[in-house]
Here is the input.
Amino acid sequence: MSPGPVLAEHRCMMTSPGASSGLLACGLLLGVLLGCGAPPRPRNAKVPVMVAFAEQRAMPFALFSTGTVEPSQTTSVGSQVGGTVVRIPFREGDPVTAGQVLIELDRRPFRTALDQASAALARDRAQGEASRLEADRAQKLFEQNAVSQAEWDQKRAAAQAWAGTVAVDSAAVQAAMLNFDYASIRAPISGRTGRLMVHVGDYIRPATSEALVTINQTHPVRIAFTVPASAISLVQQHRGAGARVIAGSASGDSTAFEGPLVFVDNAVDPASGTLLLKGEFPNQNGRLTPGEFVDVRLVLYVETGAIVVPAAAVTNGQDGAFVYVMIADSTVVQRPVKVARTVDEWSVVRDGLAAGETVITDGQLRLSPGAKVAVRSAKGAAR
Here is the structure.
């Protein structure tokens, strides 16, 4: 082959626009291939985590429940006698003291009845005294054989009858005095009044079962709650060893109230399988209202020397609970643990950890045994 045609073809390829585009594409492809084969940039192998320290401390053992506030005493005030209301010297919702007048009825009918009973007693007492004197004279005459046995017996029986009549009259006077006193309806206990069901001018029927007003004694109050039947043995074992009840508002209020355990029912409710308990609280500030629902924690005892970690450090896997423990070279090991219970935000570890060990509380999802970690923040479990 002659060199001429070859040079001509070479010149033709160099001058052709299509050939230039092909060369550019080949160069770009070669650059991409070379770039893909380049080694990756080095990355930081440490996983950022948050840690806490396992600590030894005293931890309470508690049962949790929901309770209802109850007044320590409650009474529905009624009326012993019937009459028309003439005065109500309090307003519904006011606090009252035992013996304070709540409702006054019209006293005039009761005063009249008392006067009548007193007059009858005076009349019959005079008659009885006269009959007694006659019986005494008849006895002296009988001893002198001046009157017969029958006459003396008659005089003596008449005197005894009048004595009985005087006793009946005396009881009638006492009843009339009671009714007169009952015309002023008084508070039987101290507490706070509820809704008033009568008004001035209303007629109250005697011995009615309808409550005129209800009084709740709210200093102190009790909180009733239940525990499952499985916890009865624990309650019976520790009820006399300083068991206390801690209550908090179910609405999220951070205020806590504490009082002793004062009542344990003597039987399990067969319908619910629970045991009723009650705690007592001073409630001097009136923050606890009867009928209110509260969160209850029954603290039976305090375990001293318990190993605790934040609950966030414990992970549940297929083989049970475990924690990641950071060792001296900033690597982590997976440690199986036995969690006895969780109190608030802390887990009490029965086995698997020692005080002072460092556990991971955040970042566990990016960890595996042997991974390197970088601590972002550390805190003590007790805080």
User: Anything to note?
Assistant: The longest helix spans residues 108-143. Residues 74-204 form one domain.
